[in-house]
Amino acid sequence: MAAQQPLLEFQDVAKTYGQRIIFRHVNAALFSGSITLLAGDNGSGKSTLMRLAAGLTSPDMGRVSRRVPLARTGYMAHATFLYPGLEARENLLFWAKASGIAEPAKKVTEVLEITGLSRSAFEKAGVFSRGMAQRLNLARLLLSDPLLILLDEPATGLDVSSRTMLEEVVCSARKRGAAVLWISHNIKEDSRHADRLLVLNSHTLGEEELPSC
Amino acid sequence: MLTAAIAICKKDLLMVFTHGAGLAQALLLGLLLVFLFSLSLNAGDRLSPQAAAAMFWLASAFCQVLVFNMLYAAEEAEKARLGLLMLPAPVQSVWLGKAAAGMVILAAAQCVFIPAVFVFLGQKMGEFWTLSLAGILIGDLGMAASGSLLGALSVGQSGRESLLSIVLFPLLTPLLLSVVKLASFGLEADPMLENALRWIGLAVAFDSIFLGAGLVLFPFVYNGED
Q1: How many Cβ contacts (< 8 angstroms) between chains A and B?
Q2: pTM of the entire predicted model
Q3: Which among A15, A35, A136, A203 is placed 20 to 30 Å from A113, CA to CA?
């Protein structure tokens, strides 16, 4: 039987900003149906690695191979990608239509329900709390049923119930075969559902044991 | 590409016309310009058609800068730019969507500027008003194509407005020259129409250059790098 192809692969990747080396010799592969935590100190380049994975920036050396179409890649960054002046539903309808999703209105209703935002659908995103905006951001991500999910500190600002919802969403994505890369500063808590832990340290990426519960 | 461009255009128009983002500022600046210039006239005086046409297009050019700054700044508030870059469509769809939205907004603003030019600058409609209308259509297309390209260039710059103005206004000169001339034909009672086709040709050439430049250069100026 042929070995499974990774959905995302970093091959000897290096990234610099001017004279500053962010990381080098980064090698990693993300497979279907897996959750990988990415940890590291502030400024170690976790978000940069995420942007490389999302195809938003190019490596200075090496190769990033994504075997998932852009339409099925979901990226949740620090910023929410939302338009504060538009209602929650309008925001989602825009992203659904721009992404060419079939039956956008139906899909939007569905993801609003999953994220528990149905009752706030007609409120402007600008009046949302950080936690609600993050839920809406998650709803945006779910529109495309992503196969590659890139989460940059997704639990920021989430209360306990929102956090549980996030974990459920991520676990159900794994069940349907998605590969998840999750930047975490709370490894102990987030590792409950994770399969691997990658750590960016001293300009390079290494794998570490997941902490035991 | 068209699906994404239409979605972007609709979203921008929704933000501007339904939620009132930024249009008032552009309208007020243009109207103020026309009104202030009218103060240089004595009661009953009529400004020359060419000067009135120049005021109209100057107001439109200022409006263009504000509109495209606003359209691209909206993508920066929550870094929606990164989401746009991840759409399953060529990045030029952003340029096209913004250009279309900008053109509609500019045309809406001009619907306010035109009566202001007639009222404050004492103008009358001439026989060849269709030439002015053609000039507005061609001019708006060129302003939209160039504004959308150069608006993207100023994204993330601290002096965004000034950068756009500095880059845009010199480049707009050939377009402004021709559309001012075309607009003046529609305001004059007996215009000299011999050169009308040449002015139209110049404006169309400008549009073609910026439509081509937008398609080719946009991916280089609008990307995920901060």
Answers
A1: 82
A2: 0.89
A3: A35
